[in-house]
Design brief:
260 residues; globular; 2 domains; 2-enoyl-CoA Hydratase, Chain A, domain 1; 10 strands; alpha/beta; 47% helix
Length: 260
């Protein structure tokens, strides 16, 4: 499919999605959010895709925030609809995909950009990356899940400090906080993400889908994550991947998972 604001490429089971608005530091506007939803939905439904990597074009920014010009004159109801729709079609959608999503943070990840990265299943940053949620400096608060996901990742106190000061942290601080898994050079960022994706590719896609569902259940109000884990664990016993995985282990060979 042809896009105006993003690029999407599939190679050896990895779908790399690149936000491609370098003249706007890859800022998210409504059109870009819609295209990202389409690309992630296509990846979710493509049997050849096992892992997704999302990044930004250029060397300056992953996503440097939302496109403020699109909502500077919004009413209260319009603001609510903007946040609700964005969360539904992109941020919550990514978090609940059945396929692992890696954020390759290649520069500024601010506002909606950091919220996009936090919606991914884990994050790798280049050493030039800067991250923050500056919304209160605009008279706003994070509206795409930032007030919920950031405390889960870094703790309430650090999240409060980042949000209320509207300040940025560098990649090494993000690593110390647990916001990112690894920090590497800009040149090594995509190779490292692809190396991790290759490790993921060796495993059962059915089991990974179940694992993502179980982990995410911990954050859902009214849902007992332990019960979800028990249920998903039991379901694994009825899959062809379980048969192949255990048989391969006992036969001391590499598993060839059918993904069923």
């Amino acid at each position: 499919m042809s896009y105006n604001n993003i690029l999407s490429e599939v190679s050896h089971g990895i779908n790399t999605i690149t936000i491609n608005r370098p003249n706007k530091l890859n800022a998210l506007n409504k059109a870009t959010i819609k295209e990202l939803h389409t690309a992630f939905n296509d990846a979710e439904n493509d049997a050849d895709v096992k892992v997704i990597i999302v990044t930004g074009s250029g060397e300056k920014a992953f996503v440097a925030g939302a496109d403020i010009s699109e909502f500077s004159d919004f009413s209260v109801n319009e603001g609510k609809k903007l946040a609700a729709k964005g969360q539904k079609i992109l941020f919550d959608y990514i978090e609940n995909l059945s396929k692992p999503v890696i954020a390759a943070i290649n520069g500024f990840a601010l506002g909606g950009g950091l919220e996009l990265a936090m919606a991914c299943h884990f994050r790798i940053a280049s050493d030039n990356a800067k991250m923050g949620l500056p919304e209160v400096s605009l008279g706003l608060i994070p509206g795409y899940g930032g007030t919920q996901r950031l405390p889960n990742l870094v703790g309430k106190g650090r999240a409060m400090e980042m949000i209320l000061t509207a300040g940025m942290i560098d990649a090494n601080q993000a690593l110390t906080f647990g916001l990112v898994n690894y920090v590497t050079t800009l040149e090594s960022l995509m190779p490292l993400c692809e190396k991790l994706a290759d490790k993921i590719l060796r495993n059962s896609s059915v089991a990974m889908k179940a694992a993502i569902k179980a982990v995410n259940a911990n954050d859902v109000d009214g849902v007992n994550g332990f019960e979800v884990e028990i249920d998903e664990f039991g379901k694994c016993f009825g899959t062809k991947d379980f048969v192949e995985g255990t048989t391969a282990f006992l036969q001391k060979r590499k598993a060839d998972f059918p993904g069923e």
